[in-house]
Design the sequence.
């Protein structure tokens, strides 16, 4: 039976963010990429709602000790889940994770429908602005054109900023890998080093000329580092 791997996207992320990981590991792992229900209407704290969603997802799919890999907001969700259920996670991988400090790339309220603004903000995510393809910009643009989705994004970002994980990180025994871009302007390198100081069983790898989404911007390096970590 293949080991399960769960890939958790960020606030503006999507399933396509993980194409490189899927191509590299898909034949050997049972890969799951749940779409986080960021836009659902509910009465809970937004981040709490996402953690509960992950709990239900793992239970419904009967996944035993998956590898959890989270980018940005997805990393934050993975941290909270692993802290609550350390016995249900085999390895934890964080890349550009929120939870300690992050810069909100869209500001307090996104400029809805402003193409150039959205393009500039998406490009800000990467070291190489060429990674912000027309398709990627259009994907984010469509989200920001929806008033309800915009509101949910702002609410979720604020929920993540309120949920400071420094106090719980020392309580996570799970082997953890941090893959971080040296040019990450959303969750800067200092954040990665703080994660490294607070987690008990942790390895940090910094990637040069790389921004907030290493699995997209440096897929070959990302997969090689992840491969080594999972093989230990």
Sequence:
């Amino acid at each position: 039976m293949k080991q399960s791997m769960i890939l958790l996207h960020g606030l503006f992320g999507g399933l396509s963010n993980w194409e490189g990981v899927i191509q590299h590991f898909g034949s050997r792992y049972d890969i799951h990429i749940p779409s986080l229900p960021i836009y659902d209407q509910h009465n809970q704290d937004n981040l709490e709602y996402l953690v509960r969603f992950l709990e239900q997802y793992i239970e419904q799919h009967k996944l035993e000790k998956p590898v959890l890999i989270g980018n940005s907001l997805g990393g934050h969700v993975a941290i909270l889940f692993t802290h609550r259920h350390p016995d249900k996670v085999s390895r934890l991988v964080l890349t550009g994770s929120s939870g300690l400090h992050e810069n909100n790339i869209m500001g307090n309220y996104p400029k809805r429908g402003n193409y150039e603004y959205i393009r500039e903000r998406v490009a800000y995510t990467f070291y190489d602005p060429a990674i912000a393809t027309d398709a990627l910009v259009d994907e984010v643009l469509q989200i920001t054109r929806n008033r309800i989705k915009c509101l949910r994004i702002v609410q979720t970002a604020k929920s993540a900023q309120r949920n400071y994980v420094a106090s719980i990180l020392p309580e996570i025994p799970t082997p953890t890998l941090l893959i971080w871009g040296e040019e990450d302007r959303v969750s800067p390198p200092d954040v990665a080093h703080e994660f490294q100081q607070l987690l008990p069983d942790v390895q940090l790898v910094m990637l040069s000329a790389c921004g907030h989404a290493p699995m997209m911007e440096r897929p070959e390096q990302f997969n090689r580092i992840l491969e080594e970590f999972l093989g230990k």
User: Anything to note?
Assistant: The chain has nine helices and six strands. Residues 123 and 133 are 9 Å apart (CA to CA).
